[in-house]
Amino acid sequence: MSGTVVGDLTMMSPDKTAFTGKHKLTKGIEFKRVFKKPFVSTDPCFKILVRPNHESNSRLGMAVSRQVDKKAVGRNRIKRVVRESFRHHIFFQKACLDIVILPRRETAMMSNQQLFQSLQGHWSRLEKRFEG
């Protein structure tokens, strides 16, 4: 594993699991579709909404508002952690899901490691729910 360490978040060098444009929810209609009838996974850090899609890969969308953290640097840190966790979870390379992440206010006070652990729990739940 080569990469640089920034804080307690390891930034991996680009590889086959890179987070590219095809892995992003970008349009309002894509978000609305997920919000319509989602499978929901919640904990003190995140509320995660999921729906199967008809794409060839999973896609991730985030809504990190100023209510979560007033400073952009804090909101961007949360987004980086979520993207990195999503990118490294092998299940999403096989699954075809649209996922919207809604961080809670408490996430701004948590370390990257705590956020990774929370997301790992969500990914495990989603894998059990949507595998097969």
Topology, pairings included?
Elements: E1 3-6, E2 9-12, H1 28-36, E3 39-42, E4 46-52, E5 59-62, H2 72-88, H3 91-94, E6 97-103, H4 112-130
Parallel strand pairs: 5-6
Antiparallel strand pairs: 1-2, 3-4, 4-6
Written description of the protein model:
With 132 residues, the protein is an alpha+beta fold. It has a single domain (18-130), classed as Ribosomal Protein S5, domain 2 (2-Layer Sandwich). It is 37% helix and 23% strand. The protein has four helices and six strands, in the order ββαβββααβα. The chain has helices spanning 28-36, 72-88, 91-94, 112-130, and strands at residues 3-6, 9-12, 39-42, 46-52, 59-62, 97-103. The strands form two sheets. The chain has a four-stranded mixed sheet with strand order 3-4-6-5, with helices on both faces. The protein has a two-stranded antiparallel sheet with strand order 1-2. A hairpin with a 2-residue loop joins β1 (3-6) and β2. α2 crosses α4 (112-130).
Keyphrases for this structure?
4 helices; disordered N terminus; 132 residues; Ribosomal Protein S5, domain 2; two-stranded antiparallel sheet; 37% helix; globular; single chain; alpha+beta; four-stranded mixed sheet
- Determine the strand fraction and express it as a percent band: 15-25%
Got a strand count? 6
Residues in helices, as a percent range = 25-40%
Give the CATH architecture.
2-Layer Sandwich
